[in-house]
Structure to design on (122 residues):
């Protein structure tokens, strides 16, 4: 991965807020970029050098078990700005990577997740 490689994040439908008046405007919550304890504080992403956004979406949802509203991306540079290491580990599939939140207290995880979400929106 290079500093500008898109790190593709699947956005679960529950992390999307819809404007109930227009039903067309939506926003993604920072929860989309917050790892859970089951992740071991390592946020799962796809390496954009190996998958397009469409390919990552299709790969993620093809089993019928995983759900995704869509795909957002940040870069390693944006992660490094927040002192969040990222790396490709190819586990459980070739092209899997993660953003590492290990060792951060919950309030810092929340703040950094929000900053990543904001970077992805831009």
């Amino acid at each position: 991965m290079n500093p500008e490689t898109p790190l593709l994040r699947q956005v679960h439908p529950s992390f999307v807020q819809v404007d109930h008046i227009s039903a067309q405007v939506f926003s993604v919550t920072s929860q989309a970029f917050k790892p859970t304890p089951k992740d071991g504080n390592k946020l799962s992403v796809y390496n954009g050098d190996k998958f397009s956004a469409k390919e990552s979406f299709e790969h993620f949802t093809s089993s019928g078990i995983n759900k995704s509203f869509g795909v957002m991306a940040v870069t390693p540079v944006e992660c490094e700005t927040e002192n969040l290491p990222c790396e490709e580990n190819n586990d459980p599939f070739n092209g899997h990577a993660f953003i590492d939140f290990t060792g951060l207290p919950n309030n810092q995880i929340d703040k950094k997740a929000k900053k990543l979400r904001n970077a992805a929106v831009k």
About this structure: Helices lie at 53-61, 76-81, 106-121.
